[in-house]
Write a structure and sequence with these properties.
alpha/beta; seven-stranded parallel β-sheet; 18 helices; about 40% helix; elongated
């Protein structure tokens, strides 16, 4: 699913009007009907509905929605804020249509107005501003937004919460942005919906199909995309009937200082559960006995140090190396990491303390093999690229890092972003807050290392691994609840994630 910019949505509108053909007003009516149906599906009448519309086309949508909901039996009060006496032609046309709707309470505001009494159970429709907004709201509109945000009831924003920009909100004033319970957006999501800073404003979002041109959409290019299960299923390798363990890849995991055996266990079990043929594990000597018991399928490689990892094993026989979970930040471990990075001839999976050591020893960044997969959470990324003022800036820094170093950066979080070396980004729609638990990242490292060793390209491994990890987490949360989910539950539910992906490939 593509994620378009606000400018591209306007271009798609224009293409649809020109080639369908349909008038601009006709397309607005089509959109309003789709929005009204979405509201009606979620909130059956009779309900009190308060519609706040601005002077542009987003306001025209709002007025048309007010008319349609009133006809369908809702008790509707609508306000059009026309403080400059300048309405868009389609907004003006819909303003005139309201005169013929009996029972609809309509007010056009040119100066001050009294905010209505809104109660629990009422619906507020925010149609003040859409993708055309380029700067934070101020003055009367800012005050109006603050009134909406303090009112009870459900707030439904049309296309975008008013005051929110479609992409970059790093300089926005969030006190002047509508906090929607639900955002009904045109056709496809906006980039802003996928960034953490905007979550309280966007609320739940639903992309509403208004029939924009499919041909026009095919002609648009966007670096942003939301993963789709059917597309990912086509990447899955078919395991040959006569396969042996050597055909399924050999992986090396470098993980676990003393006291961090758990990180190594979590990564190793996830790696094994993701289809690897043979797994070797390099860990601190102090962890040997517990790891041999906890992960008997893994081959343990010797380490001279008791409390940390200090040396580097030959990586030539391995198809992939994953390094970082529970690694620690000892000086000798930094030297071992340097050796692993410089000697590896294949892409690696680099996570956790390996990333923190790279942040401390910045020259290590230049040793990362091309095609490697880096899996930072936001703070780990900022230790490498510098402090970021917003989630948008953080995403742009991750994209720039991926492009500059020729790697894939998996920026973890809700809507985990897989940032590729060509500048494109795939967002994962799966996952849940229960996965915000210690060890979840170690599980992801194991999955990615396994897939990379099995011959998937780094980009394929990153996208597949992130989706499988998130989908297994959703299956775990469904069975156990988000509060009760722990990292090992994600590994336990990987079979369900693989089965779901395979099933969609047979449809």
């Amino acid at each position: 699913m593509l994620v378009l910019t606000g400018k591209q949505f306007r271009e798609l509108d224009e293409y649809t009007i020109e080639h369908e053909p349909v008038s601009s007003l006709g397309l607005m009516e089509r959109a309003a009907r789709a929005f009204a149906q979405a509201i009606e599906r979620r909130h059956k009448s009779p309900r009190n509905v308060f519609v706040f519309s601005g002077p542009g086309n987003n306001g025209g949508d709002g007025l048309a929605i007010a008319r349609l909901l009133s006809i369908r039996g809702y008790s509707v009060s609508a306000w059009l804020f026309n403080t400059k006496g300048e309405l868009s032609p389609d907004c003006q046309a819909n303003r005139e249509l309201l005169d013929s709707v009996p029972g609809l309470n309509f007010t056009e505001v040119s100066q001050g107005f009294d905010f209505p009494e809104i109660r629990e159970g009422d619906i507020t429709v925010d149609a003040l501003f859409g993708t055309g907004l380029t700067r934070p709201l101020t003055g009367g509109f800012s005050q109006l937004v603050k009134k909406i945000n303090t009112a009870p009831g459900t707030v439904i924003s049309i296309d975008l919460p008013s005051g929110l920009m479609a992409e970059d909100n790093s300089k926005n004033d969030y006190t002047s942005v509508v906090r929607a319970s639900l955002t009904l957006t045109v056709q496809l999501p906006k980039l802003a919906f996928l960034l953490a800073d905007n979550a309280e404003c966007v609320g739940e979002w639903e992309a509403v199909d208004i029939g924009l041109s499919a041909e026009g959409l095919r002609q648009l290019c966007s670096p942003y995309n939301i993963m789709e299960q059917r597309e990912l299923s086509r990447l899955l390798h078919q395991r040959p009937a006569f396969a042996h363990k050597g055909d399924m890849g050999q992986a090396l995991l470098v993980a676990g200082a003393k006291g961090m055996a758990g990180a190594a266990i979590l990564a190793a079990r996830a790696c094994l559960r993701s289809g690897i043929g043979k797994l070797s594990l390099h860990t601190a000597d102090a962890n040997f006995s517990v790891l041999q018991s906890a992960v008997p399928e893994a081959v343990l490689l010797p380490e001279v140090e008791t409390e940390c990892i200090s040396d580097c094993h030959d990586t030539l026989k391995f198809n992939a190396v994953g390094i970082g979970p529970g690694l620690g930040k000892a000086d000798v471990t930094a030297k071992a990491l340097r050796l692993y990075l410089s000697r590896s001839r294949r892409p690696m999976v680099i996570d956790a303390d390996a990333l923190n050591l790279i942040a401390q020893h910045t020259d290590l960044l230049h040793l990362i093999p091309k095609g490697s997969i880096l899996t930072p959470h936001p703070k780990e990324l900022e230790r490498i690229v510098g402090a970021c003022s917003s989630s948008y800036e953080r995403l742009m820094r991750a994209v720039e890092l991926a492009r500059r170093k020729g790697v894939t950066v998996v920026l973890k979080g809700h809507y985990t972003a897989v940032c590729k070396a060509d500048g494109s980004v795939e967002f994962c729609p799966a996952g849940n807050p229960g996965m915000a638990t210690a060890g979840s990242g170690d599980v992801l490292t194991g999955i990615l290392t396994s897939l990379l060793a099995q011959g998937y390209t780094p980009e394929q491994a990153a996208s597949l691994g992130v989706w499988l990890h998130a989908t297994a987490g959703d299956a775990a949360a469904q069975q156990l609840g988000e509060e009760c989910l722990i990292a090992s539950d994600i590994t336990a539910h990987l079979p369900e994630a693989f089965a779901k992906l395979k099933a969609s490939n047979t449809l």
